[in-house]
User: Fold this.
Amino acid sequence: MVKLSEHLRRTGVFSMEEVNRVMPPPEVLKKGPVAVVECIQEIPCDPCHASCPFGAIKEFKDINDLPEIDWEKCTGCTLCVAKCPGLAIFVVDASCDGDDALLKLPYEFYPVPEKGEEVELLNRAGEVVGKGEVRSVIEPHKDGTKVVTVHVPKDMIADVRHVRVVR
Amino acid sequence: MRKTEVLVVGGGPAGLSAAIAAASMGAKVLLVDDGLKLGGQLVKQTHKFFGSHRQSAGVRGIKIAGMLLSDIEKLKDKIEVVSNTTATGYYQDDGVVTAMTGEDVYMKIKSERVIIATGASERMLTFPNNDLPGVYGAGAVQTLMNVYGIVPGDRVLMVGAGNIGLIVSYQLMQANVEVATVVEAMPYIGGYLVHASKIRRLGVPIYTSHTILEVYGKDAVEAAAIVKLDSKWQPIPSTKRILNVDTVCLSVGLSPLIELLWQAGCKMKYVPQLGGNVVLRDKYMRTSRRDIFVAGDVAGIEEATSAMLEGKLAGLIAASDLGYAYDGWEADREDTLSSLEELRRGPLSEKIRSGLKEVVVEW
Amino acid sequence: MSSRLEHHPILTFQRGRKVKFYFDGKELEGYEGETIAAALHAAGVKKYRTSAELGRPRGFFCAIGKCSSCFMVVDGKPNVRVCVTPLREGMRVQTQIGKGDLIEKN
Assistant:
């Protein structure tokens, strides 16, 4: 059984070690957009594998296995982001020059942010850690789960996990 | 007296799957459900289901309900549906089931096989003023909010961080209702941690080793007190805090609705891992009474995907008893069985597995 | 703020015809087909009866007809589970005091 931190089991928020466990290494991040799979508890679930058109999320031997991602094959297309029942997959793109990165997050709330709108950036504990501009909003499977692409500072790609519309 | 071959009591995920399976085999099915609409708890589930993509994981509960209802519709020559009807009794002397439509129309039903898929009811918690309006079961909040589109209040205290408490908290936030906090008496979050993370990043705190102490209000909830528990589950008075909430949502577990099984004289056993008193049954869901089957939460509190698989098994076997079959049904049966085993194989299903050891027998 | 949801990220609500009904003599509006409990809650009414012994306020708890918390007097009939009884035009819904009286038929 995979070990989970006391912090996560008591609060629902990843420990630093768990954040490091799921984040891609710098050389992967440099190359382009990739999925960060924040699914570290063995639960019976496998739609992420079936949703990936590139075979980047490996086939499950047992449905209770943790998903394994091959970042070489991942294109950051976000089909898994919008499919994951736990909303636990995010896409980060830190490949551009400068301090700016793009984060693609699952979003199931009303109102939906608009392109160009400035939204609040929230971390894993729901604290507002900054503001960012929405670059696009898509609905990959036309099933209510949207994917919001937002600009975030590069040093915050491991922290920001939700956006909030403030109007 | 109505006569049928297979009577299915309950139109939730287990009952619908049982009716579809039995009718696909060729049996004549009567499906009795107490809801105004079929679907049981599925129609309130706006989240996407876990499980295998082969069994509609990644699809929202409401959509799964729609898929099952469309299968029922396709089999309407075989399946008769009676809604708004509660099965009120099972009479051992002649095997008749009585049922009540609405508040005052009664009927008697005689069938060759009965599949009990009555589900579960929500547990209460004892604390001062727990009877005040505004203290609602989590399922009730879902009904009000997700079926009728009416929010339960402005600010909610959620009691219980199992999957239902976490999911309903998220659904409340989707309806723009503020969730003040989630309290959980256990030292650890009981539900899937991905569900916990979903509400934490919205800013909803989860306090483990905390419980509700009491509720305040005259004609309805006006505030609630929470408190931290020590390692012996005793409240630590200095940690008491008052929350301004108008709704307290309880998600502190479910109890199987086993009344009909008691009345039928099926062999029962108290198995806390499965939610309390449950029925002994074989791996194909047959009880100690050859003509009675169970499926879903009534057979042990679990979740909707396993309920659908159990329902399918019960429906197949009940119809097969009566001589019905379709090509490949036995392979279907074994495939369903292995899907169930796979779902329950993980580390988080340890409790279910130990409970099932106590009730799954060979007749 | 109205407690009826007009927007939801996942769901759309198909409501029936708007109808009038009466709660303790006061005219209220609801939608045909929703339950009496839902219509009352949307109108801000949470207290449906008083308990038999201590006269304490009670509302709904389970909303699926199982717990008996939401008994009201509907069109003169006591002990109606309003959480599973559909609303109809002109219904007279009353707070149930205690056990409620049996209607005697001659």
